[in-house]
Amino acid sequence: MADRGELAAWLRLTESLGAGPVRRLLAMAGSPEAVFELPAAALEQVLSPRQRQALAAPPEHLAELMVQAEAWLAEAGHGLLALGDADYPAPLLATADPPLLLWLQGRRELLGTPSLAIVGSRNPTAQGGDNARAFARALAAAGYTIVSGLALGVDAAAHEGALDAGGATIAVVGTGLDQVYPRRNEELAARLLAAGGLIVSEYSLGTPVMQANFPRRNRIIAGLSRGCLVVEAAVQSGSLITARLAVEAGREVFAIPGSIHSPQSRGCHALIRQGAKLVESAEDVLEELPAPGTPRAPKAPTEPAPEPPHGQQALLDAMGFDPVSLDALMARCGWPAAELSAALLELELEGRVARLAGQLYQRRGLG
Question: Coiled coil where (predicted)?
């Protein structure tokens, strides 16, 4: 952002009009400040009467927003990119609807790095969360910046996996950067920034949580990335919006298959039927998108999981990887209910089995 006048012009435009009209005005005027010098005849060519009225007077909150923005931008690690700036990310610029402004907190150089999006359900199965972390760790270790949306569930697990690998990650959010949503991810956002990550928003400071903004931010997640991996998603999931936007932007789309009985797998299965690549490991992704640079070895777990004691492996083998009821496990193993429940509890405490809704159990990981 060049100066205070340019900042004021951008804020006035974005707070008064939608992106489409602003782009048309910029094409005519050449700069945000020059828009306000266009003659009435020129404005009539591209704006409706209501839009011309909105542009005629500054928004009531513009002065307050200017004070807030200048104070925020004065802090270390804070920045603002405008459409047309020399360092505006080229992959995003090439999409159909690049944002007019990008508010940045953290290491802005990450916008120029090879990136991969990992998205999925806000309420994943335990295995879905594990998969998101494992893929993010491996892909970050291979040199990709992991992009996601800082939401609960798969998004958070993807950011965590990248950080666990000592890799880079970008969070694209749907509120102003003066707040963190959801609040439960405040610690994750702080960890991300401390590790040299980046948080991005197209929304002005003070923009509250509005549901319509979250599907819109998905186009930025897709646009910044070379490819999009969907870990778990229901048929109506917002992750499928991200995948569709990735396809429209010419990006690769990958999906992890799951149980035919799980609603969280149906969105991924639909993507696979539509042409997304079925992946079972990070290597499957890297076959399509080779790793940039020299791969880094992922960090070893602080506390390696112990091998299952004798007898537990037989139970894990009997479970398979689909959700299963206690009665079905009793029929498969022939164990008494009390012994089976005790073994399942022990495996659950070790993190090898997850208890699901409806009195179901599911094996986690491959061990």
Answer: none
312-363, CATH topology level: Arc Repressor Mutant, subunit A (1.10.10)
Rounded to two decimals, the pTM is 0.82
Burial, 264: exposed, middle or buried (Cβ in 10 Å; 0-12, 13-18, 19+)? buried
pLDDT in tens, 131-185: 999 999 999 999 999 999 999 999 999 999 999 999 999 999 999 999 999 999 9
Return the SS3 of 146.
strand
CATH topology of domain 108-288: Rossmann fold (3.40.50)
Q: What is the pLDDT of residues 217-264, one digit of tens each?
A: 999 999 999 999 999 999 888 899 999 999 988 999 999 999 888 899
Nearest to 149 by CA among 132, 174, 124, 130: 174
Q: Which residues are bridge partners to 99 per DSSP? A: none
CA distance 112 to 121: 27
Per the CB < 8 A criterion, the answer to whether 232 and 210 are in contact is no
- Give the helix ranges, DSSP H, for the chain: 4-16, 19-29, 32-35, 40-46, 49-56, 62-73, 90-93, 126-141, 154-164, 186-194, 213-224, 238-248, 263-273, 282-288, 312-319, 326-333, 337-349
Strands 198-201 and 115-119 come out as: unpaired
List, in sequence order, every residue forming a beta bridge with 314; answer none if it has no partner. none
Question: What are the sequence ranges of the domains in the chain?
Answer: 1-68, 108-288, 312-363
Equal CATH topology for 108-288 and 312-363: no
Phi, psi of 274 (to 5 degrees): -85, 0
Rounded distance, CA 244 to CA 273, Å? 13
